[in-house]
Design brief:
Helix 7 crosses helix 8. The chain is built from twelve helices and ten strands. The mean pLDDT is about 90. With about 300 residues, it is α/β, with parallel strands linked by helices. A six-stranded mixed sheet has the order 7-6-8-5-4-9, with helices on both faces. It is about 50% helix and about 15% strand.
């Protein structure tokens, strides 16, 4: 068992963030914790495989994936994978949220999420966002992990979903910039045109939000540039939600800010799911695990409050 997971779990308990559930062989988990002098008090250990639970999950998974050729036996094979098992724990109500991804590729970890977890009502797709604290600013970068080359309609969805997350989970007043290499039609090319169209679609759906673009990053982030050259823009160099044209530009920008500017990163956070599942980077730190778990716990609490409000 990864040492960072155990140390992060202990911190999560000590800081009263959530009740961590460790999935695996209880004897091995306890032995590893003893080696590291980690107290397991306040942690729950779920044995896997547990035949009764495995049978229940397999039947549910087979029912929901029958159109994709998944029968009960195939479902049981899939559930040998911790990622499938953990997502099914959340989907079936045995856990409130799931965090995974250490020491495995992002595609392998997110695949079960996309296959199993339903979307939140009114949302058309899953998207990934990073929250970055840099130079006394908090910024949201989306989509940096999931949608490789989204359409204008999809970009509008991503913008609105990210704005909602910034507001509801972080208590921020979202100011959304649609990022490109062009400013308000200065370059006649399909790439900036797509971002301008996305901005128009998003504004038509949520006229109460501050959304503008297409615009270059410096126009979005530097008040002097915005005031001097684009005084009519709704964004006055004060954007805090940056929507990128594709996953390549979003991910590259994120890594540059993180490595060169020393930005503190929380994420990736998966948006648009009916219940919270978040996927860590392949290599991560204890503090990053704790941070994303805290966000997952907040998201799970929001899901519970919505259910209670409906009932």
């Amino acid at each position: 068992l990864d040492e960072m997971v155990l140390r992060a779990s202990q911190t999560i308990v000590d800081e009263n963030i959530a009740e961590p559930i460790l999935v695996g062989d209880p004897a091995k988990i306890r032995a590893r914790a003893a080696e590291l002098d980690i107290d397991l008090t306040g942690l729950r250990i779920v044995e896997r495989p547990n035949e009764a639970r495995l049978e229940r999950y397999a039947r549910l998974l087979a029912k929901e994936r029958a159109d994709h050729g998944v029968d009960v036996e195939k479902a049981k094979q899939l559930l040998r994978d911790n990622a499938y098992y953990g997502v099914m724990m959340v989907h079936s109500g045995d856990a409130d949220g799931f965090v995974s991804g250490i020491n495995r590729s992002y595609p392998d970890t997110i695949r079960p999420v996309l296959e199993i977890m339903p979307l939140k009502g009114g949302v058309s797709r899953v998207a990934g966002v990073y929250c970055i604290a840099v130079k006394n600013r908090v910024l949201f970068f989306a989509d940096s992990t999931v949608n490789i080359n989204p359409t204008a309609e999809e970009l509008a969805d991503i913008a609105l979903t990210t704005a909602t997350l910034a507001k509801e989970q972080f208590g921020m007043d979202p100011r959304v910039a649609m990022i490109s290499f062009s400013n308000f039609g200065s370059v006649n090319h399909e790439f900036p045109r797509r971002m301008a169209e996305a901005a128009a679609i998003a504004r038509s759906r949520r006229p109460d939000l501050v959304i503008d673009g297409e615009m270059a990053p410096d126009t979005a982030l530097v008040p002097e540039i915005a005031a001097a050259h684009f005084p009519e823009s709704r964004i006055r160099g004060d954007a805090n939600v940056l929507i990128f044209p594709n996953v390549q530009s979003g991910n590259i920008s994120l890594k540059l800010v993180q490595q060169l500017a020393g930005g503190e990163v929380i994420g990736p956070i998966l948006m648009g799911l009916s219940k919270p599942v978040n996927v860590l980077n392949y290599h991560t730190t204890v503090s990053e695990i704790v941070n994303i778990t805290a966000i997952t716990a907040v998201m799970a609490n929001d899901v519970q409050q919505r259910k209670e409000a409906v009932s």
